[in-house]
Amino acid sequence: MSAPVTVVLLLPEVLGTYGDAGNAEVLATRLRWRGIEGRVLTVGWTDAVPSGGDVYVLGGGEDAAQVLACDRLRDSIGLRRALDRGAPTLAVCAGLQILGTAFTIADGTRVPGVGVLDVETRPGGGPRRIGDVVADPLVDGLDVPLEGFENHGGITELGPDAAPLARVREVGRGPGGAGNGTGDRLEGAVSDRGRGTVVGTYLHGPVLARNPALADLLLTKAVGELPPLELPEGMPAATAARLRGTGDDLGVRTGARRRAGA
Amino acid sequence: MSRRPARLPLRARAAVALARLVGGLARSAGRHGAVIGGRVATMLDRRVLARLAAGRTVVLVTGTNGKTTTTSMIARVLGGAGRELATNHLGANMPDGITTALLDTFSAVDAGPSPVAVMEVDESYLGEVAAATDPRVIVLLNFSRDQLDRVGEVRTVARRVGDAVEAQPGARVVAFADDVLCAGAGLRAAAPLWVSSPTRWTGDAGVCPHCDGAVTHTGTRWACSSCGLARPDGDWTLVEDDGGVATVHGPDGDATSLDLQLPGHANRLNAVFALAVGAELGVTPAVAAARLRGLEQVGGRYRTVTRPGGTTRLLLAKNPAGWAQVLDLLDEGPPRPVVVAVNSREADGRDVSWLWDVPFERLERHPLVAAGERAADVSVRLAYAGVGHRMADDAVAATRDTVGEVDLVGNYTAFHDAARALT
Ligand SMILES: [Zn+2]
């Protein structure tokens, strides 16, 4: 019997502000629903980052927490080795900024990042970008719109070695969003001009709970072709369809419309 | 407790009279009665809140969870034998609501106000309200993530609360020692009194409020690994044994047993704050505890409604820390059916990501219904948690479909919609 597939959740005490730890739970559970043994390995503040994980997950965090987490992860040999061998990685919000080349915090200090994504983040000034997002994917292997909730102040510019994850829809006919804040409606970033395995996004939700196709894309990068989902009995039919990626989307369009109509 | 309220200057008296008139009209029309009087009075006299508070013994209560219940408990302890006391029992906790609550205790403009005011204050407004009201006591309950899309970073909120505390050297601060951010704010006071009891929610406790270093937790203690900031020792400590007996140990070495009708650990902890504030203002813990025994519900929370075929108990949980308290409470009882109702309107916060910080796995033994406007999100969350459930459009209808005793747990608007529909 092979070893369980390990989803490494990095520093949830400081990078877990928006329920993003749920992304790790989604990945491990979707493996189990396919008969593949999956587990979440939580790396706490005083733990070493293992180099042999199968998928790595970083969440969002507040400003001070982000600097603290970045200092910790930049010096981690385990994380460096995992990223060097191309381990699939999901980084949300503060996580995305940390994996970039650098970010500048409110007081003007420029903090060097882990540098695995060719992006740099500067303060946006003005109001934070907060609200529901619908975005059309721009990477191979994703063909349904992504949805989530963005809440960030920084503006993230992509360098030549990064590619955008998606393009947010124009606000007006339903939710759109600000994305990376650069004015071109680009959302998130993918490493190595889109061929790489590191995916960064500003979408919360958690993003993988609301976008099963993105979860399965990361799992495919980790373990290869996936067997079909075998969901537990007795689940509401609409929920089972959502988990298979064949049902309605979640809150953004259904919930928001219903609310607006109420 | 016996400072004599000052008479109001003419302009303020005019503002008060008109505001009372408008507030009364608005209330009889059923609209915004809890804030409109204060808004009108403030328009007429910017300093009306300060004037209304002048001469009173003011207690301000702030924090993320438990404000309304703790305010109600303190009011009961200090109000005692029917003495008139001003409090914002409708939960309107921003400056207009607090002004309205103070206005309401003027039986006539010249009769003078009640001598004691106990007010819950929204975390973001503590500085403004404290500057106007010169509080005798400030209570800091806890700080955790709540409506991040509206309120902003919890660390920023806690830091501003600390600023407000530091600006009020005349106030006695009563703060929760086990909560890292709360202790950070309380330590800005000269001589805070500490309430302590092991807490389970440590989700916002990873970064030091003083130096931004990493905070580590060992058992029930916490300490910053960089600057050495650590959990203060409790002056007022809650001890609960397995048999459900709760005892409060005070700074004088006395022990008072709690016998509350309100359920759960969180309410026992709220009661410790009420005992501490009572003692600070001359009510002995034994008398305070006796007064708390009569409290059955707070603004509909914990209320049990009888319906055909059974009863529905109403519970409010609007963020992960609030849910942690409700889960503790549900663990104490039999596995009754639970309806989880979640909305995401403005007052709730639009983002429901917080559902993933709630360990819904703990509800495994309860029959569950996912409901509310975000029932689909709740259902997906419960599916990944591996707990069986069904989905319902209408939370109240779901309770009616269930025979026996049901708990309905709603976030802000879901709770209030259900409370209204059930009465
Ligand atoms: Zn420190």
From TrEMBL, chain A:
UniProt keyword Repeat, yes or no: no
Chain ranges of the CobB/CobQ-like glutamine amidotransferase domain: 7-211
Keyword list, A-Z: Cell shape, Cell wall biogenesis/degradation, Glutamine amidotransferase, Hydrolase, Ligase, Peptidoglycan synthesis
Highest taxon, organism lineage: Bacteria
Residues annotated as the enzyme's active site: C93 (nucleophile), H204
Pathway connected to this protein: Cell wall biogenesis; peptidoglycan biosynthesis
Entry-linked InterPro entries: Class_I_gatase-like, CobQ_GATase1, GATase_3, Lipid_II_synth_GatD
Chain residues that bind substrate: R128
E.C. designation(s): 6.3.5.13, 3.5.1.2
CDD domains recorded: GATase1_CobQ
Reaction equation(s) it catalyzes: L-glutamine + H2O = L-glutamate + NH4(+); beta-D-GlcNAc-(1->4)-Mur2Ac(oyl-L-Ala-gamma-D-Glu-L-Lys-D-Ala-D-Ala)-di-trans,octa-cis-undecaprenyl diphosphate + L-glutamine + ATP + H2O = beta-D-GlcNAc-(1->4)-Mur2Ac(oyl-L-Ala-D-isoglutaminyl-L-Lys-D-Ala-D-Ala)-di-trans,octa-cis-undecaprenyl diphosphate + L-glutamate + ADP + phosphate + H(+)
Self-association and partners: Forms a heterodimer with MurT.
Main function: The lipid II isoglutaminyl synthase complex catalyzes the formation of alpha-D-isoglutamine in the cell wall lipid II stem peptide. The GatD subunit catalyzes the hydrolysis of glutamine to glutamate and ammonia. The resulting ammonia molecule is channeled to the active site of MurT.
Family according to the record: Belongs to the CobB/CobQ family. GatD subfamily.
Name of the protein in question: Lipid II isoglutaminyl synthase (glutamine-hydrolyzing) subunit GatD
Organism of provenance: Actinomycetospora endophytica
UniProtKB/TrEMBL annotation, chain B:
Domain Lipid II isoglutaminyl synthase (glutamine-hydrolyzing) subunit MurT C-terminal: start-end pairs: 316-414
PROSITE patterns: FOLYLPOLYGLU_SYNT_1
Binding-site positions, Zn(2+): C208, C211, C224, C227
Protein name: Lipid II isoglutaminyl synthase (glutamine-hydrolyzing) subunit MurT
Pathway participation: Cell wall biogenesis; peptidoglycan biosynthesis
Keyword terms of this UniProt record: ATP-binding, Cell shape, Cell wall biogenesis/degradation, Ligase, Metal-binding, Nucleotide-binding, Peptidoglycan synthesis, Zinc
Reactions performed catalytically: beta-D-GlcNAc-(1->4)-Mur2Ac(oyl-L-Ala-gamma-D-O-P-Glu-L-Lys-D-Ala-D-Ala)-di-trans,octa-cis-undecaprenyl diphosphate + NH4(+) = beta-D-GlcNAc-(1->4)-Mur2Ac(oyl-L-Ala-D-isoglutaminyl-L-Lys-D-Ala-D-Ala)-di-trans,octa-cis-undecaprenyl diphosphate + phosphate + H(+); beta-D-GlcNAc-(1->4)-Mur2Ac(oyl-L-Ala-gamma-D-Glu-L-Lys-D-Ala-D-Ala)-di-trans,octa-cis-undecaprenyl diphosphate + ATP = beta-D-GlcNAc-(1->4)-Mur2Ac(oyl-L-Ala-gamma-D-O-P-Glu-L-Lys-D-Ala-D-Ala)-di-trans,octa-cis-undecaprenyl diphosphate + ADP; beta-D-GlcNAc-(1->4)-Mur2Ac(oyl-L-Ala-gamma-D-Glu-L-Lys-D-Ala-D-Ala)-di-trans,octa-cis-undecaprenyl diphosphate + L-glutamine + ATP + H2O = beta-D-GlcNAc-(1->4)-Mur2Ac(oyl-L-Ala-D-isoglutaminyl-L-Lys-D-Ala-D-Ala)-di-trans,octa-cis-undecaprenyl diphosphate + L-glutamate + ADP + phosphate + H(+)
E.C. number: 6.3.5.13
Keyword DNA damage: no
Residue intervals of the Mur ligase central domain: 61-180
Function: The lipid II isoglutaminyl synthase complex catalyzes the formation of alpha-D-isoglutamine in the cell wall lipid II stem peptide. The MurT subunit catalyzes the ATP-dependent amidation of D-glutamate residue of lipid II, converting it to an isoglutamine residue.
GO terms for MF: ligase activity
Family: Belongs to the MurCDEF family. MurT subfamily.
Listed PANTHER family: LIPID II ISOGLUTAMINYL SYNTHASE (GLUTAMINE-HYDROLYZING) SUBUNIT MURT (PTHR23135:SF7), MUR LIGASE FAMILY MEMBER (PTHR23135)
UniProt subunit comment: Forms a heterodimer with GatD.
Enzyme class, broadest EC rank: ligase
Active site positions, chain numbering: D351
